[in-house]
Structures are given as C-alpha cells and as structure tokens.
Automatic annotation (TrEMBL), chain A:
Protein name per UniProt: Cell division ATP-binding protein FtsE
Source lineage: Bacteria, Pseudomonadati, Pseudomonadota, Gammaproteobacteria, Oceanospirillales
GO terms assigned for molecular function: ATP binding; ATP hydrolysis activity; transmembrane transporter activity
Pfam entry (one): ABC_tran
Position of the signal peptide: none
Organism: Chromohalobacter japonicus
Cellular localisation: Cell inner membrane; Cell membrane
Key words of the record: ATP-binding, Cell cycle, Cell division, Cell membrane, Membrane, Nucleotide-binding
ABC transporter domain span: 2-221
UniProtKB/TrEMBL annotation, chain B:
Record region (Disordered): 1-23
Family, as annotated: Belongs to the ABC-4 integral membrane protein family. FtsX subfamily.
Transmembrane parts of this sequence: 55-75, 202-222, 255-276, 296-320
Membrane protein topology class: Multi-pass membrane protein
Top-rank taxon, per record: Bacteria
Composition bias, Polar residues: 1-10
Protein name (record): Cell division protein FtsX
FtsX extracellular domain: residues covered: 90-181
GO CC, one annotated term: cell division site
GO biological process: cell division
Length: 222, 330
C-alpha cells in the first residue's frame, strides 16, 4: 500500500527532516509511527498526502509514484486517503453533519446517498445524535471523533492520523484507538503517528520509530 | 500480508479508476451542476448577511461604471444627431441674377434630372427675400432697398451624403448653364465628426480605465473573503478539493458584486438622466434643435449588467488565482 524507497526530505538549507527512509506497508495493515516531536513524523505523513515532494528517493502509494502525479491529479488522489488531524480541522461555521459531509460534497456524491453515508459514519463514532450540533458545542473528544467520521465517510483505503490523541486523556485516547482498530478490521490500512508510547505498546501493532529524521526501528506486531 | 509487491495494488487501482470514469459523465455533470447551484445560492446568502459592506462594494463598482456608460450614451445620441445632419447636407446652387422666374424653373428642372441629385427645391428671389427677412429680423433695412438683391437659388439634396461625393457634385453643378455658384459648407460637419471620434476614443479609454477599477475593487473584496475563509480552503484542499471547487464560491461572489454594481449603475444613470433632461431639452430648443437625452433601454441595460457581471467574475478569478497559490495547507 505504501512504499518508501530511500526517501529524503530537506527544507531549504536546514538539516534533513528525513534521511534515507525505507519501508513497506501492506494493504490492510495497521501501524504506528512514533518518535519525539521534530523527529519527522509529520513530514513523513505530508509526503504520503502529497502535500510535499521528497527531495530524494520515491514514495509509492497504492502503486502510484506520487512524484509522477500531475498537479491536477492530486485532489483525486487525496480523496482516496482519509486524514485525521491533531487539531481535528473542523469548520466552525457549519453543523457536525455538514462537516462530515464535506468530502462527499467535494466528490459530488448525490445528496441522499451522502446523507446515508454521513449518518453511517456518525453512527460508527457514536455521535449520530449530535448531527445538528455545531462543532463549538462539542467536547474535544467529540470533535476528534467527528474528525474521524469525516476521514472515513468516503471509505478510504488508507487512513492517516497525525497525533489524533494529542489533546485527549488516556480513556478518550483508548476509545479513539479502538475506533481505528475497528476500521482496520474491515480492511482499511491505518497509519497513526503518535508519541504516546504507553498507549502504543499496549496496542501491539507494528511500530515505525523515527529519530532525527531517520528510521531507527521497525518492530513487527507482537 | 505485510511485504506484498505493489503491482497487484496498482492494477486494482487502475481497474477501479476505469470503472469510476464509466459511471461518471452523467452523474458527474449532475454533481457539477448541483455544486454550482449550491455555490450560487451560498454566495448570495453570504453577501446578504453583510448588506452594508456588500452594498458599498456594489456602489463603488456602480460609480466606476456610470461615467463611461454615461459618456457612451451621450455619444450615441450625438451619432443620431450626426445622421440627421447628414440628411441636411445640402448644396445651395445660386442662379444667375439675370434669369427670370421661368428660366429659373427650367434650370431647377435640369438640376433635378442630374443623377446624383435626390431632390432640388427652387427658392425664388422673392421667397428668398421673405425668408431672409423673417430669419434675420432685418425687415426695416431690407424694406428700404429698391431692388431685390438676392438671386434665385435651388436647394439640392444629394443622393450620396459622403463629403467627397457632395463636393464633386457641387463643382459639376457649378459648371452648368445659368448657375452662378454652388456652395457647400462641409467644414463644420467634418469638424463635428472629428469631435465625435475624439469623444469615442475618450470613452473607450475611460471604459478601459474604469473597467480596470472594477477589477481592482472586486479583486480586493474577494481577496479579503479568501483571507477570511483561509482555514476552510486549507481543509477542503487537504481532503481533495480541486482548484475549481475552491474557486467557485468566490467567482459567484464576484459575479454577484458585478451584477449588483451594474444594476446600481443603471439606477444612477436613470436618475441622472431625469435630473439633466429638462435643462438639456431647453438648451437644445434654444438652438432650434429637437434633442432629448437618450435612455439606456432594455438592450443597453442588459449589456451593462452583462459586462459588469463579467468584470466581477474576472476580478474574482484573478484575485482567487493569485491567493490560491499562496494558501498551502500546513
């Protein structure tokens, strides 16, 4: 699903954010990406999302060499990826329902079908009863779950999460992780960047460890 | 599972892509239309939510539109006047003073038979004197004259009103028997034409300049709108929105501003026309001309609205295009 071949990334003249990264992720796998802040987790995710190009090497996702994409193809590529952000990135001027419906609106899904899928996604994260609420009325845990609902509403084959539990207490974090495991169980490839080591070790999935832009560990699921 | 090659992945991806494009065209067109309708309404709603600032923007556009379109209207009416003048471009043929009235009639008849003459009206010496007295208010001075000093004249309307053709006709007529002089006064007519041409160019230059002004007004307004919706743009870009999708609501906003400005400009022009019409008509009457201020009319109004809407759209397009490049998701 994801292949990194000798990938390096350098911003401007500064030292390398990523250096010679090599790994493969199979379809349907679930794994964590860990390391201190500044170790390159976010840079790596940005490369997969094709927000940036690698300075060296190449990145393949679902068989596509991301370097070869024409600028106009990138939006269509991103639609196949669900992304969960640390700060959830919800739009505060519209309801929970409209927020989750956004990816479907972008893809031009017919409204009735869209409503059905939005409700299914909200149901999955246990917040169907909040569909008419505004994001401002929700707790941070709820907002994060809405962010997840939005990420999975178009049934992406790859789900990326950047510190999805960063602002949450351990109980809520565990709930969120369980959600990711649920999606993984139905075949979605899930990659979660997190520095919450206690949580990660408890969950027993494959872990990629980054330190100062280098891949220093690739531990298979226990 | 973990270390599988990616070739099968890629094949599956391609197959899915092919199917998607087959399902596509009709439903994609429907989705496209749906989004257009949604953005059309959404942008109108956003404008309506802040009526004062929207109105001010539209007013700025309207003011920029009023001057060139007002000038254009004035010029258009000058063209009408010009056409009227063309018809009045006549050659006055003064006959030999020694000819008596029947001989004058003969000459007039001969003139009428000339090919490039549309019409020839004889003004006898006596009629000429009467006209002169009336027109100039010189009754007393002329009454003291023993003989009528005026020659009989034939007012010839040329078939072709082109200045050069008229000049040729005049010199031909002058060569005829019994004709003393053929006079044509075209200089003032040509001067008027040049003036009209100057006015036309001035209007075009002003229209260009003020059109640019409209672009800037709309562009600046849209720039602020883009800035205030920056987060939304970043998010939708992250989840796969195309540039066209991001641009669409702003384009509609720009078009709305343009349309509103166009409508306001029509209102301003109509009001201004009413305000000016009485003095203009009075002024024209004092010159003995019949002239009323022209109206924009349905066609003109539609054209003005269309142009202003297009300008608004274009201004938004330029502004969004420039700022989309700046906005990159974090």
């Amino acid at each position: 699903m994801i292949v990194f071949e000798h990938v390096g990334k350098r911003y401007g003249g500064r030292s390398e954010a990523l250096a010679d990264i090599n790994f493969r992720v199979g379809r349907g796998e679930m794994l964590f990406l860990t390391g201190h802040s500044g170790a390159g987790k976010s840079s790596l995710l940005r490369l997969i999302m094709r927000l940036e190009k690698p300075s060296r090497g190449r990145v393949l996702v679902a068989g596509h060499d991301l370097d070869r994409f024409h600028l106009s193809q990138i939006p269509y590529y991103r639609r196949q990826i669900g992304v969960v952000f640390q700060d959830h990135q919800l739009l505060f001027d519209r309801s929970v329902f409209a927020n989750v419906a956004l990816p479907l609106e972008i893809q031009g899904v017919e409204p009735r079908e869209s409503a059905r899928r939005v409700r299914a996604a909200l149901d999955k994260v246990g917040l169907l009863y909040r569909e008419t609420a505004l994001p401002i009325e929700l707790s941070s845990g709820e907002r994060q779950r809405i962010g997840i609902a939005r990420a999975v509403v178009n049934k992406p084959s790859l789900l990326l999460a950047d510190e999805p539990t960063g602002n949450l207490d351990p109980q809520l974090s565990a709930d969120i992780m369980r959600l990711f495991e649920d999606f993984n169980r139905i075949g979605t490839t899930v990659m979660v960047a997190s520095h919450d080591l206690a949580l990660i070790t408890r969950l027993r999935h494959r872990v990629l460890r980054l330190r100062e832009g280098r891949l220093v560990g690739d531990e298979e699921a226990a | 599972m973990t270390r599988r090659t990616t070739s099968s992945d890629s094949q599956r991806g391609e197959r899915r892509g092919a199917r998607a494009s087959q399902v596509g065209l009709e439903s994609r067109t429907r989705a496209w239309l749906r989004h257009h309708r949604a953005m059309w309404l959404d942008s109108a709603r956003r404008l309506a939510k802040r009526p004062l600032s929207s109105l001010l923007t539209m007013l700025a556009i309207a003011i920029a539109l009023v001057l060139p379109s007002g000038l254009w209207l004035a010029l258009d009416s000058a063209r009408l006047l010009d056409a009227e003048l063309d018809e009045s471009a006549t050659v006055t043929v003064y006959l030999d003073t020694r000819l008596d009235e029947s001989a004058a009639m003969d000459v007039a008849a001969r003139l009428r038979d000339q090919a490039p003459v549309a019409e020839a009206r004889l003004v006898t010496a006596a009629e000429g004197l009467a006209e002169f007295q009336q027109g100039m208010g010189l009754e007393d001075a002329l009454a003291s004259l023993k003989d009528n000093p005026l020659p009989a004249a034939v007012v010839v309307t040329p078939a072709d009103t082109d200045p050069d053709a008229v000049r040729v006709l005049a010199s031909n007529l002058e060569a005829m028997n019994g004709v003393d002089e053929a006079r044509v006064d075209l200089a003032w007519l040509e001067r008027l034409r040049r003036l009209a041409e100057l006015g036309q160019r001035l209007t075009l230059a002003l229209a260009g300049l003020f059109g640019l002004g409209v672009l800037l007004v709309v562009g600046n307004t849209i720039r602020l709108a883009v800035e205030s919706r920056r987060q939304e743009i970043e998010v939708v870009t992250l989840i796969g929105a195309t540039h066209a999708f991001v641009r669409r609501p702003f384009l509609y906003s720009g078009a709305w501003y343009g349309l509103g400005g166009g409508v306001l400009a029509i209102v301003l022009l109509t009001l201004g026309g009413h305000w000016l019409s009485a003095p203009v008509t009075a002024l024209a009457e004092s010159y003995g001309a019949h002239f009323t201020l022209p109206r924009l009319g349905v066609g003109g109004s539609a054209l003005l609205c269309f142009c202003s809407t297009l300008l608004g759209w274009l201004g938004a397009w330029l502004a969004v295009g420039r700022h989309l490049a700046d906005i990159k998701p974090r």
